[in-house]
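User: Show me sequence and structure for the first protein, then do the same for the second.

Assistant: Starting with the first protein.
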Amino acid sequence: MSTHPNIFLVGPMGAGKTTIGRRLAELRGLEFVDSDHEIEQRTGVDIPFIFEKEGEAGFRRREKQVIADLTMRSGIVLATGGGAILDPDNRQALAARGVVVYLQASVDQQLLRTARADNRPLLQQASDRRATLEQLFRIRDPLYREIADIVVATDHRSTKSVVREIEDALDQGRSG
């Protein structure tokens, strides 16, 4: 496991990357950064607008640049977008420049956590949200696992218990 001070959170939408990332950063004295928020700050528009105007391909190009930039920083906890791992360069940057934590969430949990979200372009266009999430899981789960140093299930768990498990795994990796 990498001894780099960066911690990169990957996983599907609704897994808790932002919430868990904020808490983890606070506890470890690191800066928290969310790649989607960074894209919005740089462009001045929200993610759904980028999807509408540039399509998913345009969004992914922007995301790739942000991931490249952010992973070069030091001392951060980075919450990535659910699809960031689709790009091989993103996977390489994440794996090489920090500890990658895969926050795993079931499709049922994702449905619950994204039920009222209106900022999820891939779900906004979906006629069957469950089928869309299942398809995304089949494609993305192997990619998350490919680069993960730590895998943590988040279903039906508090932020505190998930953060504690990550902290324990990080501490074991450091001493072992």
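Switching to the second protein now.
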Amino acid sequence: MRRRRFISGLAGAGAGLGLAPVVGGRAAAAPARAPGAPREWQAVPVPDGAPAAQLRDVAAAGAGLAWAVGEEGRSGSTLGSPLALVWDGTAWARTGLAHLGFRGYLHSVAGTCARSAWAIGTDTSGVTHLLAWDGTTWRETDFPGRGRSGTSLTGVAVDPGGGAWFSGRTSEGQLLLHHDGGAWTWLPAPPSAPTVTPSGVQLTPRGDVWLYGVGIVARWDGSAWTELPAYQGLRASITGLLPVADDDLWLVGHDYGVGGPIGKPPGVLLLHGDGSTWQGVTRPFGVGMLNGIVADAQGRPDRIAGWDFWDQTRAHYLRWDGTAWVSERGPVATTPVVMNALAKVPDSDGYWAVGTTSTSVSSTALPHIER
């Protein structure tokens, strides 16, 4: 789930790895891979709307259909209204959400076609709202535990067959919800029954389902859980997981660490796992955030979206060149550029990245999209 939010206060700094030490240099366990081609990122026009806005997540079904979700009209710590955009192959357009009848935000979206897409939101009371795309707009839908204390959804992924997987938590400690097109099922909890809530869910081409977050990295293979050592940050956020193989995993995010003066930015988290330990990996910048990681068509590491504290007026993407992550920057803007999410466009060499134009809750903050 990727939870996305304004970088309020920018307090804290990077921290070490809970179960394994941060190691300078490249992760020795990462094999050389075919490099992706450099690309020139471009800003894309965004429809007008209320200020104090940001896009938190993006998903693409193909070159002619994509969705982006977030929030607009926030006032300080008071949540605004859900925001949703849809791409029709030519331009982004606003999707009316007044019929939903709640204030808050949308933070996760996934979809494979016009009739198989889901979005997750949270209202001002902290209650989860699950939305299904009907081909034209978003409609609220029911799910087991909806509105119940202790039950929430944090992330969503959709498989090629139209099944949907949701990370979250119930009051009984279950963390994974499955919808097969008809029935809903909360899966048994992992054996260790962690008290944490996963931040997101990721699918692999072979059908495995991964939960990830601070304090949890676990794989569901359809019948049983396999739990891996997890990153244990005190003030961390895990924003993406790429499971290339069981012994080749990438984890991204940021960590504010312990203490630090007000205004100190977070440290970048870029970790490589071999199934038993995690190593910190050399990255082009170390102060800021990484928000989302995607694979290429073969499932290999490809791109990561980032926010670089020392270069705030353009997005700082990372590209896997076969042996290391290298810089790839977006266009220079007249405002800050904070990218919150990244999506690969299926069956193409395209990407969508979404975010906002401010590092704080500001009346000047507007949605920002690049491709």
